[in-house]
Structures are given as structure tokens and as C-alpha cells.
Amino acid sequence: MMTEKYLSDLNKGDVAQILGFAAERCQNADFARDLEERLLEIGFEEGLDVKILHEGPVSRDPIAIRIGQMTVALRRREAAAVRIGPAKPHDGKV
Amino acid sequence: MSSQPHDIKVALVGSPNCGKSSLFNSLTGSRQKVANYPGVTVERRSGKYTTAAGQTITLIDLPGIYSLKDRTLDERVSRQVITGTHQSESQPDLLLCVADSTNLRVHLRLVLELKHLGLPIILALNMHDMAQRDDIEIDLDILSRELGIPVVTTIAVRQGSLDNLKRQLSDRVTHLPPKQKREQAPTTRELQILARNIVQKALLSEGTHHKITRQLDKILLHPLLGLIIFFITLFGMFQLVYFWSEAPMTLIEDGFAVLQRGLATILPDNWFRSLINDGIIAGVGSVLVFLPQIIILFTFILILEATGYMARAAFIMDRLMAMVGLNGRAFIPLMSSFACAIPGIMATRTIEHHRDRLTTIMIAPLMTCSARIPVYALLIGAVVPNHPIIYGLFGLQGMVLFGLYLVGILSALIVALVLRMTLTRGTAQPFLMELPKYQLPVLRHILINLWERVRAFLRRAGTIILYSAIALWALAQYPKKPIGGLEPDIFYSYAGIMGRALHHIFAPLGFNWEMSIALIPGMAAREVAIGALGTVYALQGSEGHVEQSLRAVIQSSWPLPTALAFLAWYIFAPQCLATLATVRRETNSWAWTAFMTGYLFALAYLAALAVNWTAIALLG
Questions:
Q1: How far apart, in whole angstroms, are the C-alpha atoms of residue B181 and residue B148?
Q2: In B203-268, which residue ranges form alpha helices assigned H by DSSP?
Q3: Three-state SS at B395
Q4: Where does residue B231 rank: exposed (0-12), middle (13-18), buried (19+ CB within 10 A)?
Q5: Are B593 and B580 in contact (CB under 8 A)?
Q6: For the segment B55-104, what is each residue's pLDDT rounded down to a tens digit?
Q7: A45: distance to nearest CA of chain B, Å?
Q8: Contact between B550 and B533 (Cβ < 8 Å)
Q9: Quick check: helix, strand or coil at residue B474?
Q10: Radius of gyration of chain A (CA)
């Protein structure tokens, strides 16, 4: 089995597809409990493509990503809870 | 509750960044009121709107929500109001759900969740112009049929685009459908799938990612360029805050002086004239003089918000702020506090999470505000020689001033860190934020919001300033000097008695009784202490003359450690009742206000003590 990849591993310009969530990877349990819900609510969804648009000036954190028609900013800590895989071969937005 | 036709209540509901408040402003215009929900710091924005049929309805603009879960205080209030469980706000009769046309997939999920409440809903697809520009095509009929609710498109900033919405509102309000039974809403995931299915049917063309936003972000979020632009923006903002406020501030000062002179000629020289001139006008004037700075600062902050740049600023500063447990949104309020803590504290409203906001408010007064500058300038000018240092590149006076700013900033960071580990401890909040599309600000909306902020400052802080100015005046005037008394009048007054009593506490700091007395009227605003010192030392003449004489007095009668300790005191001491009043209003808590006052005085005392002792030890 291939090793899992997460949104937090990506660099600027990378494109990937959201496969699922793994909030349990966060060290803090309270923090993790709600994280998946929040990610869903702001617009993360399995099957969507994401692209890393920008990285913060210090430690390349936080990151700004494109999902569908919007830009979302999040820290790499939160991005670590998003499981990703290779993007769909053709241009498949939404 | 009776629901007569004239008190129909419509709530605007939607996710953050859907342009809800803009739509609210366009519908209600200046017929709106901003207050706080009782017991919390959440703003209640309500306004009147008259439908085409002549019915007046109450519109309330609820805080933005992503779902009906309570994560922040804002979300809790929205959820309580919408579900009819709020203690003071009755359930609305109709929901005007606002969604971003360019982001239907996400926003429809909330609409679907709200539908389960059983309230009649109108859906406004806002920012329709942007959707068209990005080639997004939505079939309104299909959408309306699938959702089972009326759907209209709107462009919040264009009155002409609101006709359909107004017609729907008028229609719905006159024939208000009965409220249905509330049903259990499916899970977020189920709602998401439902929303996606509807979007697939109704979305004829998906369009592209907003082009201007994409291109602007390439520059403004560039790791180096973006940082440079950010600091230039800040720098420019502060330059203008000082530059543009200079003339109006002089005007206000001169205006009050003219008023005082005028009153002096028509009123007999008695206690009443003194109350008006030396108490109310002098006291209120010393705070009102900062109004131009506050207005200019707010204007900038509102423009940064309205254009969408504020979210970028938070993005850029987030990593640095995270080091002390705050998030990027705390940066602008803290920067604003360098001009004046009041707009800074009021600007913390953009920080969603309560604990983060509280922490930011608690440290805002540590940023060196402009009222400290006159005090610093007087003391540094009096006791610090202007030796050139570092090969003549800098003057020692400038370095001391810089050091005072730096100590303030470092203390703020340390206090924030300590607070986050103790009083405001809690689970770290995820930094998860949509970066809204860039938009041109609408002047009218900026002005409406600006007026609201200024009015809040004048009303809430203003009344406290007025009362305290009168109280401080009375303390400094009575009782009168006994016949044959040798000291200046204030020595014998209550302020003098209190100051002399306080002197026992302040003596270890090296403060003399004159300084202790001056600190009492100095509670009105920091720079008032200078005038008060002038009074205590019975110096006469114009303001400039008093300052000069004061400098001479300080040089001749204050030991150096005393003057340095006084400087240290002013880094921390919360000598500004208007700020304390603002903290009380914004936190809605006497306990937090008392805590802030207490910890700042404690720090001021310890710092002054440490400086005094160290200086004595070093200088012998």
C-alpha cells in the first residue's frame, strides 16, 4: 500500500484531489473533534480538486488553497487532517 | 407573541462573505440601529424597511454562520434567534437567506439546513454580477423548484438589482405562509451531498475562479512582495492618521480654547464657570481631541475590511501572531492601538473567537498610544541628554523613545502568552478562513458603518468621560485653600489629599507628592498629567510656556531615577478612563475591565519600582 499523503505535505503550485479526512492525526483531541465538521462546512469535500495558491511568508505557513470557486486559508496544522491523492487527469473542477 | 402585520420580523442569514451586511445596508439605508445583545458582545444590527405595499418590517442582520452549531458567541446568537430560543429576540417570521452566487455549492448547504426549521425562506443569490463576470450560469427556476422556496438574484451594492427581492419580500410579508413544524436536519455530510445534487442540476455553467482576485493575490500574497506591500500599507496608514489629524486636532483644541475664553467673558468668575471651563470643557476636550485620529483610523480599517484585504493581512501575519497564541486577525487591532487603544479595541470585533478577542483587548493598551507621546516627550526632553550614539547615527533621546515603544510591544507579547496559558486558556482555534473576493468599497456603506462606530464611541465613552471630568474637577477644586495656605490650591483639595495619601504608596518609586497628585486628574487621559503637573507646581502662562517651565522644574527638582521611573510607569499605567470604558463596553464585563486595570497598574508599579531602584543602585 502506498503511504498516505496529506494536504499539509504539498507545496505551492501543487494540485491534488481530496480523498478524505483524518482529523485524528491532530494531537489535541478537542481540536480534532470539531475539525472535520469545520472543514466540511467551509467547503472541503471528497472528490474536489485543490490547488495550493500561496504560502505564508514565515515558515511557508499558513497556506491559501483553491477549492472550487473560492480561496481558503488554513494552517498546515489543519491541512494535516485532509487526505489527498493525485488530481483527476483532465480539468475537473467541482 | 402576537404578530400584527406591522411588526413582521425578517432575519438576514448567511455564511460569512456572502455580502449579507451589504444587502442589509442597501435595504435599510440609514434606518438602522446597532446595539449589543444583552450579556454578550455580539452586535445586534436591526433596521426598518418599508415594502412596496407600505408595510414596515423589521430587518435584523444576524452574524454570519456556516451551520447551526455554536462555535463562537456570534454563531450561538444566530442559532438561538433563528430557532426561537433566544432570551430577548423573538423568532423571525421570515428568513432572508443570502448566498454567494459564485459559491453555490457551499452556501446551499446552509440553505438546506435552514429549511428544516420550518420558517418561510426567501433565497437571495447575491453578488450576481460577479457570477456573471466569471461565466457562472444558474437556472433560477430549477433551483427554486428543487429547494421549494422563492429564489431571486441580487447585487447588494446596486439598488436597481434589488427589485425582484423587494417584490418577493412584499409578497411574502403580506401573505405570510404559516410556520411549519421543525424537522431534524440531516448531518453536514448528508446536506453536502444534497447540495451537490441540486447544484449539478441548477448550475448550467461552472465558470472560472475570479480573475481579478486571482491576479491581485499573486501580488498581495507573494511571500516577499506581499509582505512589503503590507508594511507600506500600514506605514502609509499611520502617516496619514497623524498627518490628516493634525489640522482638525488643532482646530478642536483652538475651538475649545475660544469657547473657554468666550465663557470667561460672559460668566462671572465663580465655581460654575470653573466647572464648565476647567472641568467639563477641559476634561471632555482632552479626549475629544483624539476623535480625528479615531475617525481616520476607522475609515482605513473599514476600507480594508470592505475590499477583502483584511483577510489577507491576517494571512500574512498569522504565523507571527501564532507564536504568542493569537491569530492573524489580532494584528490590525493591535497596530491601530499605536494611534489610540479605543479604535483598536473596537476593531477586535473582526476576531471571531471570543477568547482570542479577549486576549487581544487585554494587551491593546500596552501599545504606545499617541496620548503618551506628550508625556514621553516632556520627560525625555528634560532628563535625557541628546548625545549622538552609534557613530552619530542616532540620538540618545530617539533611542530612549524607541526603547519605550519596544518595551510596550514585548510586554504585550509576554502578557498574551501568559494569558493564553492561564485565564484565556483553551483549545487552540483552527485558523480556517475564506479569503473573500476583492471588491471595491461602497462609500455609503463605509460612511454608515463609520458613523455607527463614532457614535458608539461618543455615546458610551463620552458619557463616562463627561462624568469623570466633572468628578475629577470636583476632586481637584474642593475643599478650597485655607486662608494663609502656602501651597497651590490643589494641594488642599480632595485630589491633593488623595495624592498625598497615595504618595506613601508611590514613595518607593521615587515619586514626589506633586507627581502623586497629578496622577489623579491624569486618569482622564494620559497627556492631562502634564497640565496637572503644571497646576501642582503653580506654573502660569500659555501651554508652551508651562511645558518649558515644567521642564526646568523636572531638571532641577526630580532626581534622575524618579524621572525614569515615571517614564516606566507610563508604559503600563491604564491612565485613560475612555479606554477603560471602551473595554467595559466591548467585553461586557466589569470583571475583565477590573482585571485589566489591576494588572496594568501592577505592572506599572513594579516596572517603576524596578527602574527606580536599579537607577539608584547604578547612579549611586
A1: 16
A2: 211-220, 225-266
A3: strand
A4: exposed
A5: yes
A6: 899 999 998 899 998 877 788 899 999 999 998 899 999 999 999 999 89
A7: 8
A8: yes
A9: helix
A10: 13
- The distance of A25 to chain B (nearest Cα, Å) reads 14
Nearest chain A residue to B103 by CA: give it. Answer: A69
A46 reaches B (C-beta below 8 A): no
Q: Is the C-alpha dihedral spanning B76, B79, B82, B84 positive or negative? A: negative
Going from the C-alpha of B388 to that of each of B385, B397, B588, the distances in angstroms are 9, 9, 48
Count other C-beta atoms under 10 Å from residue B365's C-beta: 27
CA distances from B150 to A38, B130, B169, B170 (A): 28, 21, 10, 13
Joined grid coordinates for residue B313 = 493581512
| Residues of A whose CB is below 8 A from B224 | 57
Which chain A residues in 67-86 lie under 8 Å from chain B, judged by CB atoms? 68-75, 77-78
Question: Hey, are the CB atoms on B430 and A94 less than 8 Å from each other?
Answer: no
Place of cell 510607569: B569
Comparing alpha-carbon positions, the chain A residue that sits nearest to B313 is A56
Write the single-letter amino acid at B314. A
DSSP string, B316-344: HHHHHHHTTT--GGGHHHHHHTTT-HHHH
Q: Contact, B154 vs B161, CB < 8 A? A: yes
Cβ-based contacts under 8 A for chains A and B: 120
Q: What is the DSSP letter of B541?
A: S
The model's pLDDT over B569-580, given as tens digits with 9 standing for 90+, comes to 999 999 988 899
| pLDDT tens for each residue of B182-194 | 888 888 889 999 9
Question: Is the Cα dihedral B589, B591, B596, B598 positive or negative?
Answer: positive
Q: Looking at the complex, does the CB of residue A35 fall below 8 Å from at least one CB of chain B?
A: yes
B427 to A62: CB separation less than 8 angstroms, yes or no? no
Judged by CB atoms closer than 8 Å, whether chains meet at A57 and B226 is answered as: yes
pTM of structure? 0.85
Length of chain A: 94
Q: Which DSSP string do the residues of chain A spell out, in sequence order?
A: -PPPEEGGG--TT-EEEEEEE-GGGSS-HHHHHHHHHHHHHHT--TT-EEEEEEEEEETTEEEEEEETTEEEEE-HHHHTTEEEEEPPSS----
A38 touches chain B (CB under 8 A): yes
User: Which residue is closest to B215 within chain A, CA to CA?
Assistant: A53
Q: HEC states along B144-195?
A: HHHHCCCEEECCCCCHHHHHHHHHHHHHHHHCCCCCCCCCCCCCHHHHHHHH
Q: Which of B381, B386, B373, B369 is nearest to B563 (CA)?
A: B381
Question: For chain A, which ranges sit under pLDDT 70?
Answer: 1-2, 27, 90-94
Residue B481, phi then psi, degrees to nearest 5: -65, 130
Nearest 10 degrees: Cα torsion B379, B381, B385, B391? 110
Binary contact (A57, B319; C-beta < 8 A): yes
